[in-house]
Amino acid sequence: MKIYIDGKFYGKDEAKISVFDHGLLYGDGVFEGIRAYNRLVFKLKEHIVRLYESAHSIMLKIPLTQEQMVKAVVGTLKANNLENAYIRLIVTRGVGDLGLDPRKCQDNSSVIIIADKIALYPEKYYTQGMSIITVPTVRNMPEMVNPQIKSLNYLNNILAKIEAVNCGYDEAIMMDSLGYVAECTGDNLFIVKRNELYTPPQCMGTLRGITRDSVLEIASYADIPVHEHVLTRHEVYIADESFITGTAAEIVPIVKVDGRVIGSGKPGKITGKLTGKFKELTRKEGTKY
Ligand code: PXG
């Protein structure tokens, strides 16, 4: 494995950063998770734009232009000769001192690119569906760390994940501070009701996921009405179908939430249709390497 750090490649055991890096000390930095299928990087431009938006919001200057970043990602995939890959792109604030003042890290930010394989969930979740629960940890309010910022501090989501795992589940639905459904710990949530698609809007605690956007686009082309609308737990419980979306997870049917069976208790028809079309899209669209 060849890991990119600031323009050079290192083996897995040699790829190291300083213990004074504020990415480690404070979670001060940003990241993206990206997938490549058949030597095509899916929605690379969209991921890079979101990375730079996250960085802009936390006033982190990335030492590469967006074009150079695209080349670095493509170069890492080529160096690793992977046909299908999960790419983790990280920009840290860089080396500073033990205080949290980011000015101490001026122009020290580091770019790290790891290309590897990932299978987030067992195959049975994709064929039979997954059961999930709602958890007490509330998604960050936008006035705190805005959920649109994919920062290296993911403790809000990790706490929710721990609560799910403690109860014997692999994924959790997090509510926003008003009690509406926000998203899962690393995925967006959709429901289908009367053949129409619903997902929470991005305004409160919901990341505007790139897979979410792709699914909304696919649904529009397939003449499935889509609504970005607030959802309560009740609406999830009484949905005909539900599924979650994310770069790592892709599309996973949800068949039970908090013990309530969703629809028939099996992956739904519209979920299947959207999954098929999403797979087609990932196989033919993307940045070639
Ligand atoms: N919500 C959150 C909070 C995320 O972190 C998504 C939704 C889905 O967005 P995309 O753009 O990927 O469709 C994410 C991104 C993991 C893991 O191991 C998941 C993400 C990031 C890092 C790790 O599950 N998901």
Considering the chains and any ligands shown, give keywords for the structure:
289 residues, alpha+beta, D-amino Acid Aminotransferase, Chain A, domain 1, D-amino Acid Aminotransferase, Chain A, domain 2, nine-stranded mixed beta sheet, globular, binds 3-[O-phosphonopyridoxyl]--amino-benzoic acid
**CATH level 1 name of the largest domain:** Alpha Beta
Largest β-sheet summary:
9 strands, mixed
**CATH topology descriptor of the largest domain:** D-amino Acid Aminotransferase, Chain A, domain 2
Bound molecules: 3-[O-phosphonopyridoxyl]--amino-benzoic acid
Approximate helicity band: 25-40%
What does this structure look like?
With 289 residues, the chain is of the alpha+beta class. It has helices spanning 22-26, 44-57, 66-80, 123-128, 155-166, 210-221, 233-237, 269-284; strands at 3-5, 8-10, 29-37, 40-41, 85-92, 110-116, 130-134, 172-175, 181-184, 188-193, 196-199, 226-228, 241-246, 250-257, 260-261, 287-288. It has two domains: 2-116, D-amino Acid Aminotransferase, Chain A, domain 1; 123-284, D-amino Acid Aminotransferase, subunit A, domain 2 (D-amino Acid Aminotransferase, Chain A, domain 2), CATH 3.20.10.10. The protein is 29% helix and 26% strand. The longest helix has 16 residues, at 269-284. It is globular and about 55 Å long. The two termini are 17 Å apart. 3-[O-phosphonopyridoxyl]--amino-benzoic acid is lined by residues 33, 120, 157, 183, 186-188, 207, 209-212, 245-248. The site of 3-[O-phosphonopyridoxyl]--amino-benzoic acid (PXG) has 16 residues, from helix 6 and strand 13.
